[in-house]
Design brief:
With 330 residues, this protein is an alpha+beta fold. It folds into 3 domains: 2-141, Protein tyrosine phosphatase superfamily (Protein-Tyrosine Phosphatase, Chain A, Alpha-Beta Complex); 186-282, no CATH class; 285-329, no CATH class. It is built from 9 helices and 15 strands. The protein has helices at 13-16, 58-70, 85-97, 103-113, 121-132, 143-159, 232-235, 301-309, 323-329, and strands spanning 2-3, 21-25, 40-44, 75-78, 186-192, 198-201, 205-206, 222-225, 241-245, 254-259, 263-264, 270-271, 274-278, 282-290, 293-299. The strands form 4 sheets. It has a 5-stranded antiparallel β-sheet with strand order 7-8-13-10-9, with no helix packed on it. Strands 1-4-2-3 form a 4-stranded parallel β-sheet, with helices on one face. A 4-stranded antiparallel β-sheet has the order 6-5-14-15. The N and C termini lie far apart (74 Å). Belongs to the protein-tyrosine phosphatase family. Non-receptor class dual specificity subfamily. This is protein-tyrosine-phosphatase. Its EC number is 3.1.3.48. Residues 56-115 form the Tyrosine specific protein phosphatases domain.
Length: 330
């Protein structure tokens, strides 16, 4: 059951419905509510604002409600109006308890009992992230949760017109990153076109879907990636935007740009924050092999085509899966 705070003042209501446990999701001093002494009471101090972190409480409240129900109790979850905070906590419990539910279907279930249920946009985003993570028991240890927290730090810094004080370099986290999805057994990396220094592999690339509103001829001219440790010196300057240069000190070629406020790719997609490598300044190399180890490397189709057009005969390891056919055509 999830209602507004006013229900606590209704004499006999809790007894009538057999309530044994109460979850209060609001900032309030309950010293005048002596009746609460008769119930198991859990209070979560939270405001009904988009950037309030309720996600960190989902496991605590979910486990607490689950234990109460398994002990034969009945739980009242309330906030001020019974519309946003308490509904969010209830949906999180449902997602945790019933894996087949989606955020939308869980909200619809709640609305059957509480038609006014409507979590704010920030809470809805947190519920979707919770579901995406698989409703884990160790929320705070999840890489996706940690990146979400870091994004809040970045957003707060940008709102103040500044770059964040601390940069999260993904290659130093020893955690999985949501890189681009590629065919199993095939990975790629980007190298500086001038000196061939490896800059990033598939793990740290940020995928983005081209805008359907732009002509198909508007191809992407950027590779976007997560911040990596070789950018440390550049980003430590505290600027909101600037150039990215090859980390090879003997090269120093300009290879892209960064913008904490975000930038728009030529395909129309806005990426924020943006760390971009220009496609014309890097070579894209396909690393082909089994999951457990790379066995060969081949240039991209674009590079192969250009080399072939120039009459350059490729070494066996760079001819790709159709090398015999290419051999005949050279």
């Amino acid at each position: 059951m999830h209602l507004g705070m006013f229900v606590l003042r209704r004499k006999g209501f809790l007894e009538k419905h057999g309530i044994t446990h109460i979850v209060s999701v609001l900032i309030y001093d309950f010293k005048d509510y002596r009746e609460l002494e008769n119930y198991k009471h859990l209070q979560i101090n939270a405001l009904d604002v988009d950037d309030e972190n309720l996600l960190a409480e989902f496991e605590k409240t979910g486990k607490w409600v689950e234990d109460a129900l398994e002990a034969g109790g009945k739980v009242l979850v309330h906030c001020a109006m019974g519309k946003s905070r308490s509904v969010t906590i209830t949906i999180a419990f449902l997602l945790r308890k019933y894996p087949d539910l989606t955020v939308t279907s869980a909200l619809e279930l709640v609305k059957q009992a509480r038609p006014m249920a409507e979590p704010n946009d920030g809470f809805m985003a947190q519920l979707k992230l919770y579901k995406l993570m698989g409703c884990p028991r160790n929320i705070k240890e999840q890489p996706k949760y940690q990146r979400w927290l870091y994004k809040i730090v970045v957003d707060e810094a940008l709102a103040a017109g500044m770059a964040p004080d601390k940069v999260r370099f993904e290659d130093e986290q020893n955690q999985e990153v949501d890189g681009e999805n590629h065919t199993v057994g095939v990975k790629r990396e980007l190298r500086c076109k001038r000196c061939r220094r490896t800059l990033v592999n598939s793990t740290y690339l940020v995928s983005h879907d081209p805008s359907s509103t732009l002509p198909s001829s508007s191809a992407c001219t950027h590779h976007f990636l997560h911040p990596l440790s070789w950018m440390r010196l550049t980003l430590s300057q505290g600027l909101l935007a600037g150039r990215l240069e090859c980390p090879n000190t003997k090269c120093d070629a300009q290879i892209g740009r960064y913008a904490w406020q975000g930038m728009q790719c030529s395909c129309g997609v806005w990426v924020c924050p943006a760390f971009s490598l220009q496609k014309g300044r890097v070579d894209e190399i396909i690393l082909s092999g089994k999951e457990e180890g790379v066995t060969a490397c081949a240039a991209t189709d674009e590079v192969l085509s250009k080399m072939k057009g120039l009459g350059i005969r490729l070494p066996p390891g760079m001819r790709g899966p159709n090398r015999e056919k290419e051999k005949e055509n050279l």
